[in-house]
Amino acid sequence: MNNFNFYSPTEFVFGKGRENDCGEYVKKYGGSKVLIVYGGQSAVKSGLLDRVKASLEKNGIEYYAIGGVKPNPRDTLVYQGIDIARKEGLDFILAVGGGSVIDTSKAIAIGVRYEGDFWDFYSGKHATKALPVGTVLTIAAAGSEGSGDSVITKEDGMLKRGTGSDALRPKFSVMNPELTQTLPAYQTACGATDIMAHVFERYFTNTKEVEITDRLCEAVLMTMVKETPRVIADPDNYEARANIMWAGTVAHTNLVGVGREQDWNSHGIEHELSALYDCAHGAGLAVIMPAWMDFVYKHNVMRFAQMATRVFGCAMDFENPENTAVAGIKAFRMFLHGIGMPINFEELGAKEEDIPALVDKFGLGDGRTGGFVKLSSEDIAEIYKIAAHATL
Residue 22 is part of a domain; what is its CATH number? Predict the structure, then answer.
């Protein structure tokens, strides 16, 4: 196991009706003038936004609101939020929504405290200070409610880039699984896929003797394999929703990734798909991650065989473990198909002829990209081709 520091200061406020307490936590963490950031009309129509505002008013907290955050969130709204926060002298950002809303809120929080262009932090600069951020989570997926990460798309050129800093970890996150019960099945499945991908990016490692985090990864993955079909079949299943919501947080606080080398190639490769086609991030991952597995599994057949047996219950072929590894990848792809996810370019709405542009935009592929297997631009093109033609 590698040396590591683990820092996770976020206070998680979990359970039914907990959004009614958010004002108390804003006050607890020093907020007095708040910018509420939210997405579309669902937060308004459901009454969630009104409940959040009522909680802030109850605690004597002034607020302003900005809505319209889109999936694959854009930089244009970030600039608007920064302007409002500076003009009004706001001291706290409250995200009411899913990963895109939280990522936008984090970007605003960086930008308010920075004299330059916030995009500098999505181009390599490291953030050391930001306004405090709190969240009211409505979608179990990105794990942004417990991480220091944020991903934003720059509309000029449609560049999708990320940043990470402990300065961006939320002070608190309100997590009421009831708020996810109205999500369409497709959105729920996209979120579940993202959660599993966050674990797999950590699970496939070259670090030896990391049994504790292997088992933690496998526990989250097995939970998703069990609970996702249950919640697709019964959207009002609170118990399944609760398990999935907490799994999403555990997957991306890095609790399951400490002390081990990680990969993250699949996320980088997928980002270009969702930037170009504006597809859901989880749907893109459903196409890319099994394709990446197909390409790299021979690098460590036994790790893939371990995934196959422990997570998907495949029988171990001791004479030829490669058969088990391949069966595990097939089981993962079939699971994704079973919850309504696309498995190839055609189902996603992507085009094989765009592969050269996708590789060029990725801009890495220099043989040093990724932690499990280092990929060249030719390797990335091959993964896109596998994804284009994947079948069950």
Answer: 3.40.50.1970
Number of neighbouring beta carbons within 10 Å of residue 52: 25
**Domain tally for the chain?**
2
Q: What does the pLDDT look like over 233-274, one tens digit per residue?
A: 999 999 999 999 999 999 999 999 999 999 999 999 999 999
In this model, does residue 374 exceed pLDDT 80? yes
In a domain, 338, yes or no: yes
Q: What is the pLDDT of residue 40?
A: 85
State residue 13's pLDDT score.
98
Write phi, then psi, for 212 (nearest 5 degrees). -65, -45
Q: Are 253 and 149 in contact (CB under 8 A)?
A: no
In-domain check, residue 3: no
Query: What mean pLDDT is predicted for residues 152-180?
Result: 95
Q: Domain residues for 298?
A: 185-389
231's CB contacts (< 8 A; 6+ apart) are 188, 237, 240, 241, 244
Of 179, 199, 232, the last residue of a domain is 179
Q: Is pLDDT above 90 for 294?
A: yes
73, 76, 82, 84 alpha-carbon torsion, rounded to 10°? -110
CATH number at residue 319: 1.20.1090.10
* Cα separation, 151 vs 14, whole angstroms: 25
Cβ–Cβ under 8 Å, residues 285 and 197: yes
**pTM exceeds 0.85 for this model:** yes
As a whole number of angstroms, the distance between CA 147 and CA 167 comes to 10
Instruction: Kindly state whether residues 54 and 122 are assigned to the same domain.
Output: yes
